[in-house]
Amino acid sequence: MLEIVVQSRIVVLVKQVLDANVRPRVRPDGSGVDLAHLKLSMNPFDEIALEAAIRLKEQGAAQEVVALTVGRGKAQDTLRAALAMGADRSILVESEFELEPLAIAKTVRSVLADIEPVLVIAGKQAIDDDCHQTGQMLAALLGWGQALCASRIALSPDQVEVDCEVDNGRETLRLPLPAVVTTDLRLNTPRSISLPNLMKAKSKPLDIVASSTLGIDVRPRLKIVEVREPPVRSAGVRVHSAAEIAQVLKDLEAA
Amino acid sequence: MKILVMAEHNGTTVESQTLAAIAAGVQIGSVEVLVAGHACSAVAERIAGLEGVERVWLADAPAFASQLAENVAALALELMPRFDAFVAPATSRGKAVAPRVAAILDVMQISDIVAVDGPRVFKRPIYAGNAIQTVESEEPKLVLTVRTSAFRPLGERAHVCEIVPVATVHELGLSELIGSDVVKSDRPELASAKIIVSGGRALRDAETFSRTLAPLADRLGAAIGASRAAVDAGYISNEYQVGQTGKIVAPEIYLAVGISGAIQHLAGMKESRVIIAINSDADAPIFQVADYGLVGDLFEAIPEILKQLAA
Ligand SMILES: Cc1cc2nc3c(=O)[nH]c(=O)nc-3n(C[C@H](O)[C@H](O)[C@H](O)COP(=O)(O)OP(=O)(O)OC[C@H]3O[C@@H](n4cnc5c(N)ncnc54)[C@H](O)[C@@H]3O)c2cc1C
Ligand SMILES: Nc1ncnc2c1ncn2[C@@H]1O[C@H](COP(=O)(O)O)[C@@H](O)[C@H]1O
Fold it and tell me: Average pLDDT for residues B131-158, to the nearest whole number?
């Protein structure tokens, strides 16, 4: 007789971005930021999201961790890294151009229908577009609750409790499942990837779905008029003693 | 264009970010303000007396007491048929509510605007402020969050506008607030402080951080800030972090003490009017943005500055 096992799955949204340690170069013609030949990595908040999901699985609170990304073909590298960290399987929704958060949220919603996760964990923001939108949009489209900027996640079979970092401190939220959680820096320190795990990851599933097959209108809604370097601050003066700093402070206070 | 601005408040006081969001809204069109909360009529009255505000919508109900994003977004969506734009300050709450409103309206949000170039054209920083994007929206409705440090708050005026109660209660039950740990400090708020004294990894530990910086902050009436390294090392709690992933500030004076000036930190403070840096490393990147830089040991410099200020 077949036993039906109820799988509790966590989907982690990961985005491939310009590595946090690389200084972005704005194209002189104002058309955007040049990523050619630069190091791309998993968005740091998404690494934290993935680490959180893996730990929940290790604690027995979940059975499967699925890493999901929407991006170009080369985003497979980021999924390989996710698999090496400990995701069980991964999905790339391949799109020729960069999608906006609304289109990503719609795409993810469509893919989730087959996975039926109890929890989706995303980063609080992608460090390239700094939008801070995708998790909330996904939650709204699904009619789910959201807990943002998590510094603690406690998952039980029917609810999740999350400490959320807010402007003036911390709030603890309790949400029925399924729900969306986004991560903040202090949630955990992501594990590093070992070579054996990187090798093992090669045999884990990486499914590729063409964005065009999902029937979602993902055309950009916003027009990027131009992208420019910010005005540079001219370097100031070197002072040579603490007394001079005190004088500057006194003058500024008096002004 | 008719704009609905979401008020950020704590039930009794109107946060300065609300004033800045209203100021941004006024540059786009005529502004009405949504106040959601419980027993918060004082907030609505204060806002009704602010320059640029033409009407206040007050949703005062126990269901809004914790201002949960799901409920507040549902409330805003109820009002949105009357408006062309939804504008929220880029605070924790604004950032939680606005994308839900945008998603249900099926429009793309523009986050963290720092300038209004036209009613549908905005500037916003990307890549931690290493690039500034100019975006134009032709969406049927605009949804924006406002980087409040970039807009000067408008003042009060003599008359007050009408306050319209909203009776519908939105209690979706999608989340519940079960605890909060809100920092109470006698010092000014980071977001609105005129002066910020900010410390980095060099401050060694929590005790040293506080012992070194608190007297100077007290003397200057300043808020205290920190780099991520200082927060991660437990010198001070997370609400004090300045930077790409912390608070974005633009005070009159920003004093960076033992902070190297990583791009993620600069993203949060480089719009300050005057930047003063103290760092023992002459090559620290913070000096590239500092108006006044002192190369030296902070543990000698800070007591000396205090002594000089007292003189
Ligand atoms: C995704 C991401 C997001 C991030 N977000 C943020 C953010 O929001 N905010 C943020 O701050 N960082 C952020 N960071 C971290 C950032 O990259 C830096 O690691 C951090 O800002 C360094 O903090 P620090 O300057 O205090 O420490 P350090 O870089 O270690 O600098 C310490 C400085 O103190 C000086 N010093 C040492 N002793 C003395 C002394 N006795 N007197 C005077 N000077 C002394 C040293 O010369 C040095 O320059 C982020 C990083 C990533 C990857
Ligand atoms: N292209 C993408 N594919 C998968 N997840 C994404 C993508 N873009 C954004 N996300 C997720 O949404 C979070 C917030 O991104 P953003 O709204 O762009 O700041 C990220 O940290 C990711 O977890």
Answer: 95
Q: Do B175 and A186 touch (CB under 8 A)?
A: no
Find the domain containing A98 and state its range.
Answer: 9-254
Run of H or E residues at B262? none
Note the pTM of the prediction, 2 decimals. 0.94
Q: B190-310 falls under which CATH superfamily?
A: TPP-binding domain (3.40.50.1220)
Residue of A11, A14, A15 with the most ligand 2 atoms within 8 Å of its CB, for mutation: A15
Please report which confidence band the pLDDT of residue B256 belongs to, taking 50, 70 and 90 as the band edges: very high
Residue B117 C-alpha to ligand 2 middle, in angstroms?
A: 27
Residue B189 has pLDDT above 90, yes or no: no
CATH number at residue A145: 3.40.50.620
What's the CA gap between B28 and B287, in Å, rounded?
37
Q: What is the pLDDT of residue A2?
A: 54
CB neighbour list of residue A78: distance below 8 Å, 6 or more residues apart: A14, A15, A16, A40, A41, A42, A69, A71
Nearest alpha carbon to residue A157 among A177, A179, A182: A177
Pocket of ligand 1 (CB under 6 A): A 20, 44, 127; B 200-202, 227-230, 241-246, 258-260, 262, 264-265, 268, 278-281, 284, 297-299
Q: Is the CB of A90 under 6 A from ligand 2?
A: no
CATH 3.30.450.20 applies to domain B2-165:
no
Band (A255; pLDDT cuts 50, 70, 90): confident
Q: How far is B55 from chain A (nearest CA, A)?
A: 27
